[in-house]
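Appendix C: a fully annotated inverse folding record. The material below is reproduced so that readers can follow the format used throughout the book. The structure is listed first as tokens, followed by the designed sequence.
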């Protein structure tokens, strides 16, 4: 299903008539447009390639100039693909706006989480710390034993150990759309979204937000 590329503006809260506040994330839509349409006969699958915004002239690559020139579209920031079932509904240069979500209630959001650098097992995997007393010295946050005896005599792949935390692709499903501001190209979604302010987020119709008859739940 086709989606939108958004920029995360920040987080705020909105008070209701019952004196309750709802945390919402504010997303900005910047000139989403179709750059390429892939079909199953040439590329092996049906998809739509989308770009957004405007790239600075000093950052444009020569390969990008040729790619965008084929579709006669202004060079944007990044290229994102969406698998679609019918490519005949789209054309090169088509502008995609918030009207795509007018009849939707639930969406999925994909982004890159904040990078937090090298972290220990307590912070990265929520390990329990060791005793603070009873002779424990310099091992309060140590991971403990990581292997076995002579059999098998090695550390299994995928063992939860210290390492890089964050900076990975994260998908949050079934988030509710709070409101849509088509005039200012703003999308308000309930909850907290991955990534830092100013980062890119992919918003798509929820793949699990279907009813039994296959129709997306409407607002």
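Designed amino acids, in order:
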């Amino acid at each position: 299903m086709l989606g939108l590329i958004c920029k995360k503006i920040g987080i705020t809260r909105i008070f209701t008539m019952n004196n309750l506040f709802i945390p919402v994330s504010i997303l900005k839509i910047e000139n989403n447009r179709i750059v390429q349409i892939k079909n199953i006969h040439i590329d092996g699958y049906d998809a739509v390639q989308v770009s957004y915004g405007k790239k600075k002239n000093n950052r444009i690559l020569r390969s990008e100039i040729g790619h965008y020139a084929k579709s006669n579209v202004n060079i944007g920031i990044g290229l994102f693909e969406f698998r679609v079932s019918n490519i005949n509904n789209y054309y090169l240069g088509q502008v995609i706006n918030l009207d795509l979500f007018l009849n939707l209630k639930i969406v999925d959001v994909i982004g890159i989480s904040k990078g937090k650098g090298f972290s220990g097992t307590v912070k990265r995997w929520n390990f329990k710390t060791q005793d603070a007393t009873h002779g424990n010295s310099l091992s309060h946050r140590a991971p403990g034993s990581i292997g076995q005896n002579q059999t098998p005599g090695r550390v299994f792949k995928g063992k939860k150990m210290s390492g890089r935390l964050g900076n990975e692709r994260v998908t949050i499903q079934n988030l509710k759309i709070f409101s849509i501001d088509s005039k200012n190209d703003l999308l308000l979604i309930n909850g907290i979204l991955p990534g830092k302010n100013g980062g890119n987020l992919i918003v798509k119709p929820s793949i699990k937000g279907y009813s039994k008859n296959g129709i997306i739940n409407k607002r």
